[in-house]
Amino acid sequence: MTITDLRESDAHTYSFRFYTDHPDGRYSGRPGVTLSVTDLKVTVSDTDGGVKKLTCSSTCTLPNNPTYIWYRNGQPVSDQNRNELELRDRTVDAGSYSCAVKGYEELGSPAVYSPRPPSVSETEVNGSVTLVCVSDSNPASSYTWFRKTGGNITQFGEGASLTLAAGADGVFYCTAENPYGSSTSSEWTLTSGVSWGDVVAFFPPQRSVRETTGHLLVLGQSVTISRLDPLLSLRYESSGTLQICLTSQQR
Predict the structure, then answer these.
(1) Most buried of 178, 187, 237, 245 (most Cβ within 10 A)?
(2) How far apart, in whole angstroms, are the C-alpha atoms of residue 239 and residue 208?
């Protein structure tokens, strides 16, 4: 039996059975052959002085004294042929890393890398708001939420999602962290109060105006006010150009 395009899902115990024309002419080979399929993998450990040590390993039996190849961002790292690689400067050495055994380069390990800058999204259900933090990383990241109120920053939760009751105003952000590093999202502002409103009047009379967020407002039109927008209260003196009034009732 030949297995092509071998995958980890092919790891099983295989046995054979043959038959003859005799009534009892049947035989099964036991216990069979166990096939283990595994990738090379890269693990990280911290050493003295803040140096991170990457180790390339496999549960399979490798050739005697194999030569290893390390890749950073897909390019070979020169003069590194052992199964260990030390990263001494987080800025200079930043990137994704993988490894392979010379002669078997097509069977390299999956790349490992620190979290990319997280993105934050928001959903609202029955008055409560859920923020979700997502970052691309390998291995997967753990997430921590922070809240800024005034000049204070407090840890506000853990996990990829954060559910807040109505009225939980503030500035929130999340951090993503794995053994290779961490990254912080942009700030996300929650403001309770007006979520829907009507453009009531423009002074002097005009049919529309484009506000700073880029939304086109038209006289008499119902508009959605994003939670990222400030509570719109544009009011000018008689020498000004326009006035926008928003209803304070949610719809």
Answers:
(1) 178
(2) 19
Shortest CA distance to 183 belongs to which of 152, 143, 223?
143
- How many C-beta neighbours within 10 Å does residue 79 have? 6
47 C-beta neighbours (distance < 10 Å), count: 10
Instruction: Give the global pTM.
Output: 0.62
Query: In terms of Cα–Cα distance, which of 6, 41, 8 is closest to 179?
Result: 41
Joined tokens for residue 150:
């005034």
3-state DSSP of the chain? CCCCCCCHHHCCEECCEEECCCCCCEEECCCCEECCCCCCEEEEEECHHHCEEEEEECCCCCCCCCCEEEEECCEECCCCCCCEEEECCCCCCCCCEEEEECCCHHHCCCCEECCCCCEEEEEEECCEEEEEEECCCECCCEEEEEEEECCEEEEEEECCEEEECCCCCEEEEEEEEECCEEEECCCEEECCCCCEEECCCCCCCCCEEECCCCCEEECCCEEECCCCCCCCCECCCCCCCCCECCCCCCC
Structural domains of the chain, ranges and CATH numbers in brackets: 41-107 (2.60.40.10), 119-190 (2.60.40.10), 193-251 (no CATH)
User: For the segment 94-118, what is each residue's pLDDT rounded down to a tens digit?
Assistant: 899 999 999 888 889 999 999 999 9
CA distance 184 to 176: 6
Q: Please give the Cα distance from 128 to 163 (Å, whole number).
A: 7
| Calpha distance 79→171 (Å, rounded) | 47
Residues of the chain with pLDDT under 70: 6-8, 166-167, 191-251
230 within 8 A of 191, measured Cβ to Cβ: yes
